[in-house]
Amino acid sequence: MSDETAHLALPYLAPAQAQKHVTHNEALRRLDTVVQLAVLDATLDEPPADPEEGDRYIVADGATGDWDGEDGAVAAFVDGAWEFAVPSEGWIAFDAAAEILLLRKAGAWVAAADHVGPFERLGVNTTATDPNRLAVRSNAVLLTGIAAGDGGTGDVRLFIDKEGDADTASVLFQTGASGRAEIGLAGDSDLVVKVSPDGSAWTEAIRIDKDTGLATIAYDNGAPGLTAATVQDALDEIAAAGGGGGARAGGRGRTRTGRPDRSRSRRSRSATRPTRRSPAWRPGASRSKGPSSRSSPGATASSRGPRRARSRRGR
Predict the structure, then answer these.
(1) Is the pTM here over 0.85, yes or no?
(2) What is the pLDDT of residues 240-269, one digit of tens each?
(3) Out of 5, 124, 211, 293, which could bridge 136 as a Cys pair, Cβ 3.0 to 4.6 Å?
(4) Domain map of the chain by residue range?
């Protein structure tokens, strides 16, 4: 049988041992050194000049003086002298100077935070339950990049990765746990923006084609009396009805219009061609000022065309 315990090396009392209190007190003192371990510093390689009774340190590598040869040990100042406890794998200590937890791993003291996890679930100020393996209850969440001076790039990017093209990778905005808006890749690889009044019925407001980069935008066709469901289809419908040479959506929010029939008068073309301020250019109402902001594309275009024509004749 060993004379001491396996983990903390506490001495056993022997049968018929004289002065048992000495052995017992030695064990108590060792317990007081290593249990609930918190050290003042873990970076010193020599003893402090004026230690106080009970002070504890983790001896840094290359120690000298009274700490010579005790690298990595826990040094405790007891009864006017230094005592040392050799740490085992898995010991944890709080470093008061650095305000971090240290872990004894592979013969060295390392930051415990670097060796925590992986977690099956993590809740911050709340409980994480399936399917939400990460849950955060907070009024704000900050993601900040590591500056180049600290070894980073200064950038910060959020990656949302889905397994296949038919899966969804999106950001969902809710009110009272009921969906109201969603942005992302929903069931394919086009970027879409959807909205909902109740979390059940959803309307796709914008779709950006992954191949062409062109946007399909929903608009209110109730007031204009058109049957088209998108801005582009509305332009084509107007063109088919004789309202100009037609228009095709172009890049960067502009349009490319077909060459107009030069045989028609400038006033006629101005009265029928859809303008950038027409409701067909954006969801909902026209940007024009006036008592009604939901006039039809034809009414808006024709009312502005003649005015412009008269202005030009006036010149």
Answers:
(1) no
(2) 877 644 444 433 333 333 333 433 333 333
(3) 124
(4) 36-115, 168-208, 215-314
